[in-house]
Amino acid sequence: MILDDSELEAVTGGAQNDPIVTLGGVSYFSHIIGKNDTLSRLAYRYNTNVDVLKRLNNITDPDLIQVGRNILIPIAR
Hints:
- A 3-stranded antiparallel sheet has the order 1-2-3.
- Strand 1 and strand 2 form a beta hairpin.
- The chain contains 3 helices and 3 strands.
- It is of the alpha+beta class.
- It starts with a helix and ends with a strand.
């Protein structure tokens, strides 16, 4: 399932620049880690939590995420 802009706004509270990926019927934002990104900031921004981001992206140490890495972030409903 791919969400259109109106559904995306309803889900997130506003349009995002990150593309949407659907895997196994679940939709995710595909986010490229930027210089000032942390998992806790991303978790807050996308209404999820650090443990979910760690498990989903096979991250063992949240303090060592690499700039430029592509991660999946579940779309909160």
